[in-house]
Amino acid sequence: MQVVGPVTARRMFGGYGLFLDGLMIALIIKRVLYLKADALSKDDFVSEGLAAFEYHKQGKPYTLSYYEAPETVFDDLDAMHKWGNNAYGAALRAAAKKARKRG
Predict the structure, then answer these.
(1) If we measure between CA atoms, which residue out of 9, 20, 16 comes closest to residue 90?
(2) Which of 37, 56, 71, 79 is the most exposed place for a label (fewest CB within 10 A)?
(3) What is the pLDDT of residues 5-50, one digit of tens each?
(4) Domains defined for the chain, CATH in brackets
(5) CA dihedral for 57, 50, 68, 21, sign (positive or negative)
């Protein structure tokens, strides 16, 4: 992920959240990398057959806006750059939307 920028990690959800400029852009859970998605990028993941991160709490399933990263990101720096930047873009849009709601 460093190809996208200086990424930091924090423990969460039994794994790690990956942050760029204070925004969470990815999760690593049980050795699976999930990237941030939104309405603009979700279809890119779905068209690749990639699943959203889901967890269960009190017997109910909850889905987060993070999708499995395609295998190509592990072998191809250009793919990591593309998908990582898309995740960062989704995180920026989410932060802007949250700021508008507060403001």
Answers:
(1) 20
(2) 56
(3) 899 999 998 999 999 999 999 999 999 999 999 999 999 999 999 9
(4) 7-95 (3.30.1460.30)
(5) negative
